[in-house]
Task: structure prediction
Amino acid sequence: MRLTQYFLPTLKENPAEAQIVSHRLMLRAGMIRQSSAGIYSWLPMGFKVLQKIEQIVREEQDAAGCQEVLMPTIQPAELWRESGRYDDYGAEMLRIKDRHGRDMLYGPTNEEQITEIFKASTKSYKQLPKLLYHIQWKFRDEVRPRFGVMRGREFLMKDAYSFDLDYEGAVRAYRKFFVAYLRTFARMGLKAIPMQADSGPIGGDMSHEFQILADTGESRVFCHKDFLKFDPLQSEIDFDADLKPIVDKWTGLYAAADEKHDPAKCPVPADQLLDARGIEVGHIFYFGTKYSAPLGANVDGPDGKSTTVHMGSYGIGVSRLAGAIIEASHDAAGIIWPESVAPFQVGLINLKVGDAKTDALSGDLYAKLKQKKIDVLYDDRDERAGAKFADMDLIGLPWQIVVGPRGAASGTVEVKNRKSGEKAEMPLEQALAKVAPKAV
Ligand code: 5CA
Result:
């Protein structure tokens, strides 16, 4: 993509309304634009990141055996009356009437909707277990929408639902999501720590929230320092195998959010306890028959008797993750994207647009990168070098290749790694190999 053609409305100044760094940087890097309180448009670069996050979430859900569906954003109130949540949910739920005066709502979550879909077609235990998910916009009329996309009113969530014949089956499903979540966040370069949690309005008696550590996190969290040594991507996972050992390893160490932490009862010695702030990026729940019973989701069991299915639900804050990743990975100059979610892998800077040699070398590199299917943003603007460097650091692409008149004369370019800050002069072919070692 040529920057002269790209829609990237960056800001020079810090926007006054942004209280935390990810919100500031997302606005400054032209990723999002506020529409109204807690509701955002995603501009090309922000949308690209959102789609990359979504794709990692999707791949890990699929790997765990979960099947993707797409449910509507607008739901009928009847379903929520059946579960009893229509009144319970309170002012956070956006209620709408259609032209016939029917009560509708903009879904804050989809337990009722998915249970209705499941129940319409599943009659026998032989059709179980089933794991279904979708990635869809939600609306919650939060009292205090803030921190940009981190606590929005409209936000993108991956929500998955499991259906099993009994408690044991539901625990197996719960573990699949638990492990898939560890992998999902690790692939985004995040250290996510599962913590026992309250289940809030979703209900249920087994629940973990996944918190990533970042100074600006909304909640204070406490956990054993050894968590930082764990690597969920170390080995391949067979999701059909018994996942209890992995879950036991991750739940065996102490971790608790503030409201669950009692210093007097904490089993971890002070020198091994991490006292940090966290951002909740995922939350999983087992709630048994809380929805299946009132909505009548029953199947015939092996003994021929009608049995109410056991359910769980499993959420990931997809749009929140865009902000959370920035909170966890930035410096004074801007964003530092992990490669897996970066909007482009390479930023190519032509330092002297109009100079025949730098234009030719930059154009050649641009073509070669595209040929290798490397996503590249080519800064072909006629701007000062300082402004170009500042913008490129702000948007935080993993690699920068700088083509200047001096290097162009000898056929060399400068390659900079955004994260380490390391810079080196090298010939063009070597630069290509450096920024895209795996490319064909
Ligand atoms: N039905 C369950 C799981 S499918 C559920 O709704 N869980 S939740 O309420 O915990 O939300 C799941 C995830 O969505 C949270 O962990 C958080 O990462 C994200 N999330 C929740 N509220 C917001 C919000 N207002 N803005 C952005 N992300 C949010």
About this structure: Residues 109, 111, 140, 142, 151-152, 155, 157, 159, 202, 280-283, 313-315, 317, 319-320 surround 5CA (CB under 6 Å). The longest helix spans residues 167-187. The CA atoms of residues 37 and 242 lie 45 Å apart.
